[in-house]
Design goal:
The protein has 563 residues and is mostly helical. It has a single domain, classed as MetI-like (MetI-like fold, Orthogonal Bundle).
């Protein structure tokens, strides 16, 4: 009799919970187990750790990665925080242009930015060096992108939007009451900003600092294009070398363990530091944000913002466009150097580019749909308490956020190269890896959306005889439609440009544009590289414009910060 009254949808919820555990827990468990496993016999051993850390160059790569991460995060603070304050709190002109440039920076893949900076600041041949030599008559230019400083600059240029978005969102929530109190007591604009306004955004800034740090130490594309030619050893490039034939998966798993440990330590430290202080910026009293008048300094702030966005977007985009439509990029800007041959070659004449383009957007779309569907279901299960220990599922869904993509890829490789789920060599291993990688973005948005819906709306359907699934289809779904469109795009955009996990999991028949662009970099044909990158950017921009039309101008700002 009890079975007759059981809601049959419970089996669906249990199936979705199992899918979540398989996607997130299985690769991580296999990763840890592989690090202690002998590749030949399967016996438990510590030899993998001895091999991973038995050479100085492997330890040097670890130290270099930590230095790189700290330097990039610090530069992101210098780049992003003043821009966020200027856009959110001041009367600086040109805010729309600055925001558009930051949006363009977010869309532009970091490895494409690295290609542009090679064209800009490559030794002697780069545009900046050639301009300098032309103006001064010097025999050599001063810029060399193949250095640690060049590597830090390029990665920071494509990581600071996190700092900008997180900080600006926090600033938008702070009323002017506390700033007015500081002003009444004689504090100037600068002192009030440094002592009152910015400290209230510390949790958001710390979160962005950690994201930038992890982005830097886990990034593969930019280090492969800049660090390898510059003979700079880093963890991600070393992990890639472990996958050269014959692949040493167990050693790679052991070498990836510090990335997991460092990530967990950073988030623990963030929670401890934040717990010691109060950061209440909103109270029960009404408040408003008044614009800070900068006077003539507003033009200085605009100049600073345009300088940073020129480094990250305007200059690189001009160089990519020039190279994509040039017979030879080094010949400069001239009508007789213009051609459509590069685009025709990569779109029409080269089948592998057409296939990679299709793969990129199909894999990205399917991954975004799967991540959003699973995230929405898990958020619903958690908030409606449909299974025991449901709250633990939210931590599982957010776990990939603190797992570097390259580590997750190694876990997928270890988990799905042998039966019963031998997915390596198929499109599904890439799709599932992308789904897992960006599941936290989908979950954060789904969680906020489900929380905003009163359960009484579903109860009304059930009182009238409808089941839970009918309530979901007829009530919850329509209410979430608009908001989830933005969440879909926020998963789709990074999935189409993902390289850190794709480089470890692709095979000849499953190449995506990010991998193809990286492979072409070895040939040194920057005209074709730029054309491929332009295709990826234009395709992504098309989807972003659709997002702007569907869910509003600030969909990236209001949703990215929920992660």
């Amino acid at each position: 009799m009890r079975w007759r009254h059981l809601d049959k949808s419970v089996f669906l919820w249990l199936l979705l919970v199992a899918a979540l555990l398989v996607l997130v827990i299985n690769p991580l468990a296999r990763l840890v187990w592989s690090s202690f496993q002998d590749g030949a016999t399967g016996a438990v051993t510590l030899d993998n750790y001895l091999a991973a850390y038995g050479r100085w160059r492997y330890l040097e790569a670890l130290v270099n990665s930590l230095v790189l991460g700290l330097a990039v995060a610090a530069v992101c603070v210098v780049f992003g925080v003043p821009m966020a304050w200027a856009v959110s709190r001041t009367d600086m002109p040109g805010k729309g242009l600055v925001w558009a440039a930051i949006l363009g920076t977010f869309i532009m893949p970091s490895y494409l930015g690295a290609v542009a900076w090679i064209l800009l600041a490559g030794p002697n041949a780069g545009w900046l060096n050639r301009v300098y030599m032309g103006l001064t008559g010097a025999a050599a230019g001063p810029f060399n992108i193949y250095t640690m400083a060049g590597l830090v600059l390029v990665i920071a240029c494509y990581s600071f939007p996190y700092m900008f978005v997180f900080t600006r969102s926090a600033l938008d929530l702070i009323s002017s009451e506390m700033e007015d109190a500081a002003t009444t007591l004689g504090a100037g604009v600068l002192r009030t900003t440094l002592r009152v306004t910015l400290p209230l955004t510390l949790p958001a800034m710390m979160a962005a600092f950690i994201v930038a740090f992890l982005e830097a130490i886990a990034l593969f594309g930019v280090p492969a294009l800049i660090a390898l030619p510059g003979r700079i050893q880093l963890m991600t490039t070393t992990l890639w070398q472990f996958f050269e034939f014959p692949p040493r998966v167990q050693v790679a798993a052991a070498y990836a363990m510090p990335l997991l440990s460092i990530t967990a330590l950073l988030f623990w430290l963030q929670q401890r530091l934040i717990a010691r202080k109060g950061y209440v910026a909103l109270t029960g009293k009404g408040g408003e944000r008044r614009v800070v008048r900068l006077g003539a300094w507003r033009w200085v702030m605009l100049g600073y913002c345009l300088f940073i966005t020129s480094l990250s977007f305007f200059l690189p985009m001009v160089v990519v466009l020039q190279a994509a439509f040039a017979k030879a990029w080094g010949r400069g800007f001239s009508l007789d150097n213009l051609t459509l041959a590069n685009l025709r070659f990569v779109i029409v004449d080269q089948p592998i580019t057409r296939a990679a383009t299709v793969h990129t957007f199909v894999y990205g779309g399917v991954s975004a749909a799967l991540a959003l569907g699973l995230a929405l279901a898990i958020a619903y299960i958690v908030h409606r308490r449909l299974v025991p220990f449901g709250r633990a599922l939210s931590y599982v869904a957010m776990a990939p956020f603190v797992i570097p993509g390259i580590v997750l890829a190694i876990g997928f490789y270890a988990a799905y190269t042998s039966p019963p789920l031998a997915l390596y060599g198929t499109a599904w291993i890439l799709i599932l890896a992308f789904t897992t990688r960006f599941l936290p973005i989908a979950y954060a948005n789904s969680n906020a959306a489900i929380r905003a819906i009163n359960p009484e709306l579903e109860d009304a359907v059930r009182i009238l005889g409808g089941g839970r699934l009918l309530a979901l289809r007829r009530v919850v779904g329509p209410l979430l439609k608009r908001g989830l469109a933005g969440a879909f795009l926020l998963v789709f955009i990074p999935a189409t440009r993902e390289l850190s996990s794709a480089i470890f999991l692709y095979t000849t028949g499953t190449q995506v544009l990010s991998v193809l662009l990286f492979d072409k970099s070895d040939e040194g044909n920057f005209e074709y590289l730029s054309a491929i990158g332009l295709i990826l950017v234009l395709g992504t921009v098309t989807l972003v414009l659709a997002g702007l039309r569907l869910v509003g101008r600030d969909f990236m700002l209001t949703r990215t910060t929920t992660t």
